[in-house]
Amino acid sequence: MEGRPADDSELITRALRGDSAAYEEIVQRYQQIAFRTAYVITGSSADAEDAAQEGFVKAYRALDRFRPGADLRPWLLRIVANEARNRVRSSGRRRQLELRLTEGFRPGDAAPSPEAVALASDERQRLLALVNALSDEDRTVIASRYFLELSGEETAAALGIPEGTVKSRLSRALARLRARVEEAANA
Amino acid sequence: MPDLEEQLAALAPAIDWPLTPTLKVALPTHGVVSGEAARRGRRPANNRWILAAAAALLIVATLLAYTPSREAIARWLNLHTTIQRVQNPPTPSPLPPGPLGDRLGLGTPTTLENAQSQLAWKIEVPPSLGRPDEVYVKEPPDGPSGGEVTLVYAQRPDFRVSGQTGVSVLVTEARGKVNEVFFQKMLGPGVTIEDVTVKGRPGYWISGSPHDFVFADANGDAHYERLRLATNTLIFDDNGTVIRIEGDMTKSQALELAGSLS
Fold first, then answer.
1. What is the pTM of this model?
2. How high is the pLDDT of residue A178?
3. How far away is chain B from the Cα of A81, in angstroms, using its nearest Cα?
């Protein structure tokens, strides 16, 4: 066991037995994706932090209802995203999500793919600007799927919609983005 | 030149996300011994049984204007519902923008067919209203343990549209464990409650001034649904499913809809 990171089900079992360190490990493991998912929904770092924090507390309380053998990540993301939406709803406002590009890659981030290298920096800036200019719904589904790199199940959980709707919503969002890209290219 | 999806995927590692904070998740020092036990030990108010008991006490203590018999209180609990009589009910919040389901916290949008496949019990539909315009499902941990479905009917002949939501009728159906309190009603002084019988089973017709819905989620946390139609409501037990019909309608219209559910 030593040296091998515990898998999620092992951590859940330990957390259910009262081992709070095991749950803290779960939090550590998923806090980044949880926070970023909440950020995509709320458009605010402070709200995203609150939502992620509260989401993890709620997940802890509901841990005994987690279905053994299921994937933990979509379950957690659903709770955090729901918390994020509740915050947006109760405040009655949502900050405009404005995604930006880093100048360089942070240590620990994945190395740029060949496609990333191929896509020149100014082209990336232009494409992201077009994504930012989409409607909330289009931008959120694209950000979830491509930028957060969530699976279909996780995107559905994060957006609170069925997986089938993710596909149709994504396809419509891509069609609208494609049209804008072409429009910009012809301008 | 890569296609659009490849270009988007290529942006992922270059997105400048805000720095992820180290989350401080305050857990109880005694941890999760077992889910139920932990909830009992850690947050007594979050335990459904205690919540139900507290709600029952609350009813006895606060229902001065409406004094139901002990049996009536028990029936409220069987309907997974408690009521609270208040002098100054909260004012419904202004309607925020966004999809109706989000605004009303109805759950995940879906279709009637998909909702039926998700739930272990049969969804009842009032045929006279035609197909619902929107359908939402709420499952644990956000909804009751047996799940909840909401059917949204926009404009329908003979039914007035609520100015708050632009909806004529909301039908909510939910199942939960015995004594699982997931609906609560906060009633102002101008609200009346009548016993009714629907399909031979007990129910209540609540009408008058706007009233506020409160429901408890799987953690026992209360959620205030201030943006519901806040109009008249028929609530009854249909063979283990608690059904709420809400809208700006008369009692006979509500009873007719309830009787037609199939």
1. 0.49
2. 94
3. 12
**Residue B216 C-alpha, separation from nearest chain A C-alpha, in angstroms:** 13
Reported ipTM: 0.85
* Domain parsing of chain B, residue ranges: 35-260
Answer whether A118 sits within 8 Å of B13, measured CB to CB. Answer: no
Q: For residue A100, which residues of chain B lie inside 8 Å, CB to CB?
A: 15-16
| Longest Cα separation, chain B | 75
Name residues of chain B where pLDDT drops below 70: 1-2, 26-104, 163-165, 176-191, 208-231
Per-domain boundaries in chain A: 1-95, 98-187
Judging by beta carbons within 10 Å of its beta carbon (0-12, 13-18, 19+), is residue B193 exposed, middle or buried? buried
SS3 of residue B44 by DSSP: helix
Tell me how far apart the alpha carbons of residues B172 and B213 are, in angstroms, rounded to a whole number: 12
Residue A94 has pLDDT above 80, yes or no: no
Does B35 contact A at CB distance below 8 Å? yes
SS3 readout for A80-125: HHHHHHHHHHHHCCCCCCCCCECCCCCCCCCCCCHHHHHCCHHHHH
Fold observed for domain A98-187 = Arc Repressor Mutant, subunit A (1.10.10)
**B16/A contact by beta carbon, under 8 A:** yes
Q: Is some CB atom of chain A closer than 8 A to the CB atom of B117?
A: no
Model confidence over A106-124: pLDDT tens digits?
Answer: 333 444 444 444 456 678 8
B41 to chain A, any CB pair closer than 8 A? The answer is no
Those of residues 214-233 in B touching chain A at CB distance below 8 A are: 218-219, 221
Burial class (CB in 10 A: 0-12, 13-18, 19+), B115: buried
Per-residue pLDDT, A80: 93
Instruction: Give the integer Cα–Cα distance in Å for B173 and B154.
Output: 18
Mutation pick from A60, A93, A141, A168 vs chain B, by most beta carbons of B within 10 Å, is A60
Q: What share of chain A is helix, strand, coil (3-state, %, to 5)?
A: 70, 0, 30
Domain A1-95 class in CATH: mainly alpha
- Residue A48 identity: A
